[in-house]
Amino acid sequence: MMENLADLKMETNQPILLLADKLDIPVKQNDTEEKLFFALAEYLEQVIQTDFNKLLGILYRVDVAEEKVRQALAENKNQSSGQVIATLLIEREQEKIKTRALYRNK
Q1: What is the pTM of this model?
Q2: Does pLDDT of 97 surpass 60?
Q3: Does residue 39 contact residue 25 with C-beta atoms inside 8 Å?
Q4: DSSP, residue by residue, 53-86
Q5: How many CB atoms lie within 10 A of CB 82?
């Protein structure tokens, strides 16, 4: 089951800021985690409605499988699609950060 925003428990806003930078979403470094999350979710909601191919490109660039997105959307019908996908993207960025740190320390 997918985690809620509150359950992500990020130490910093780094994953969201990385995503905002990759996707050219205008945010401020000192914005709250919640504000950053909703800016990302709103951006994704707009992309879903206007340019589905762009969404597929984003999923590819961040390395989130389409099947994982379909499953998460089916399991989280009480959240907007943008919020569900934002959570998946953040989780993936967190995994990448942890992996890089692990290999950097070896």
Answers
A1: 0.84
A2: yes
A3: yes
A4: HHHHHHHHHHT--HHHHHHHHHH-TTS-HHHHHH
A5: 20
